[in-house]
Amino acid sequence: MLIEVKVPALAESVPDATLLDWYKQSGDAVARGENLIDLETDKVTLEIAAPQSGVIAEIKHQPGDIVLADAVLCIIDTEGTAENAANDTQPQSGASDEPDAGPAPHLSPAVRGLVEEHAVDPRNITGTGKNDRITKADVVNYIDSQTSPAGNDEIREDSPTVQARPELPPSARPEERVPMTRIRKRTAERLLQAQQQNALLTTFNEVNMQPFMDLRSQHKDEFEKQYGVKLGFMSIFVKAAVEALKKFPVVNAYVDGDDIIYHGYYDVGVAVGSERGLVVPILRDVERMSFAEVERKIRDYGERARDTKLTIDELTGGTFTISNGGVFGSLLSTPIVNPPQSAILGMHKIQDRPIVENGEIVIRPMMYVALSYDHRIIDGREAVQFLESICKTIADPSRFLLQI
After folding, report:
1. Nearest 5°: phi and psi at 390?
2. Can you give the pTM of this predicted structure?
3. Where does 187-402 sit in CATH, by number?
4. DSSP letters of 4-19?
5. Which of residues 151 and 338 earns the better pLDDT score?
6. CATH 2.40.50.100 domain extents, the chain
7. Residue 358, Cβ neighbours under 10 Å: how many?
8. Of the candidates 164, 168, 138, 142, which has an alpha carbon nearest to the alpha carbon of residue 153?
9. 2-77 belongs to which CATH class?
10. pLDDT at 352 over 90
11. pLDDT tens digit sequence for 15-51
12. Which amino acids are annotated catalytic?
């Protein structure tokens, strides 16, 4: 029986998708649930799995093609016999002659070009990408390891007295043109749109993290034992932001033409870095979530972002965003608003600094926080008071109990 494998339904805001690399070719055997190809949209990468076991009878589209929802990607013959089983084990031209070298791994076009340019056998390279796929960095590291002088394996490449790589001839000034991924391209478009269409300003404050850190140290073991998740810093910032949004609803609103749309709910986006770029999954109805539920959801989003398992719906919407540059060591930044939202909160690195308490200089773990906002609808007074409300809640977590 012939089965059509189609592009799944896409979100209204995602009109099409770009095909990445096929994991299988025509004539290959596939098992039910085995990944056939990845589709990259403006928001997320989707894995297309085989609905039934069989053999790839025909591939309808090639890597790089743009496809619409419900387009046929390939046809699987559930009663067919694999044609490429014998060929898969034969070494390709230029590959190792070792009898146990195994089949050549599947390579992306960019990686394949780099491998062919340097005439290296990809079967000798250990992949660190998704599903152990070989990345360009893996190839570069392998080439460097082969060209490093013997006996210098433990010498750091940045050593001022030892040159780990051989000198290139004066004419060798390599460059490489690599197309942006759709996610990176869409992110660039949205950030530029935010700069051009919004009147963006940023206000700053700092928050003493000591009270929450003490509370966290006191209850973290019991919290993790009861809920199965660690108590981190994101949950209190998310919850504190929601309380501040309730006091200043315009920060949770957005501009639509000549109107201001106020949201009666709180969907907070949490910026997460992934191999393919920045993604912002949404915590929906945060006002109804507990600290443990927030922590579990953030952990789940982080894990699935790294594995490119997030769905389009999970990346769509949001009324407010929080970005934590502190995990990368950022001490201060001016985050850019995620359209059509009107504000974004930036968290930063916690650093011990001297402050004055009760007339005395003491050392406290401090964090700079930033609020970028659209000045068309949010006045400076509201922005400053909104950020101050968050800082007060973080510095005195008991305010959650009293709801002040």
Report:
1. -65, -45
2. 0.68
3. 3.30.559.10
4. EEEPPP--TT---EEE
5. 338
6. 2-77
7. 5
8. 164
9. mainly beta
10. yes
11. 788 888 888 888 889 998 888 988 888 777 788 889 9
12. 375, 379
